[in-house]
Amino acid sequence: MPSGSILRAATGPSPVFEVFSSIQGEGLFVGTPQVFCRFAGCPLRCRYCDTPASWECPEPGAARARVRTRCGETRVERGAPTAERLAGWVRELDPEHDRAVSLTGGEPLLHAPFLLELADELAPRALHLETAGAHPDALARVLDRMDHVSLDLKLPSDLDPPAPDADVPADDAGWRAARRRCLALLAERGGDGERTACAKLVVTGGRPAPDYRPLLADLAELAPALPVILQPVTPMGGVRPAETSALLALTELALGLGLVPRVLPQVHRVLHLA
């Protein structure tokens, strides 16, 4: 399966990179114990990505999943799991059924039919989706089954060229169209206290606040009630940390647009967690 494919034609096994229990380090639920299912495959090449090992989407027979058990050990499961098998790993890590499951990646929306099948297997457990916002059709397909969505707002200039044949926006106009449709979907769904959403913007060094205005302006127009997480990048490789002055200026910009900003670093990195 090409790494850029959005929707698989039928349900069946899906490549999962790792499954583990930890503390949520980003977004609205920061500090909350959750079970994480990290899917393999992402067509994007964000320069600040902290999980590049999840980019490639292996063939089902070559897939491997690392499952970190409750006692701290790690075992390797061979083959891409079915939704039933993955749900069994989740229950193994949280037999009390009280932790939400974070669907992360990679890009989980590459596997939308599998997510729907997994939702059936794990019901009524809460599902939290983390997505880059490049696949609005897939988001529309699974949105009603997600209890929380964290939607990235990405600057195209923060991305290297995507994987070959990737079905992702090709230019700034395409990214804006995808972003606006995702925001509209979240706004239409609304929030009832049980179903929530937020936007997340990774802030890198060397960028003045006005660079992010187009992203925040779309958010203010289409989904102003969504909290926006301003996440200072975790420096790695050649990516520079965000300047404090830029973070403060960006916060003021968001407030001036009528948004609800929160500045939060990757807490799991601060705590040296997965």
What share of the residues does DSSP label as strand, in percent? 15-25%
Helix/sheet category = alpha/beta
Strand order of the largest sheet: 5-4-1-2-6-7-8-10-11-12
The CATH homologous superfamily name equals Aldolase class I
Backbone shape: globular
Unreliable runs, pLDDT <50, ≥5 residues? 1-10
**Could you say what the CATH architecture is?**
Alpha-Beta Barrel
Counting DSSP H or I runs of 4 or more residues, the number of helices is 7
C-alpha termini separation: 28 Å
Rounded Rg: 18 Å
How many beta strands in the DSSP annotation? Answer: 12
Q: Under the CATH scheme, which class?
A: Alpha Beta
Q: Return the domain count.
A: 1
Task: Briefly characterize the structure.
This protein has helices at about 85-95, 110-120, 135-140, 170-190, 215-220, 245-255, 265-270; strands at about 15-25, 35-40, 45, 65-70, 75-80, 100-105, 125-130, 150, 160, 195-205, 225-230, 260-265. The protein has 7 helices and 12 strands.
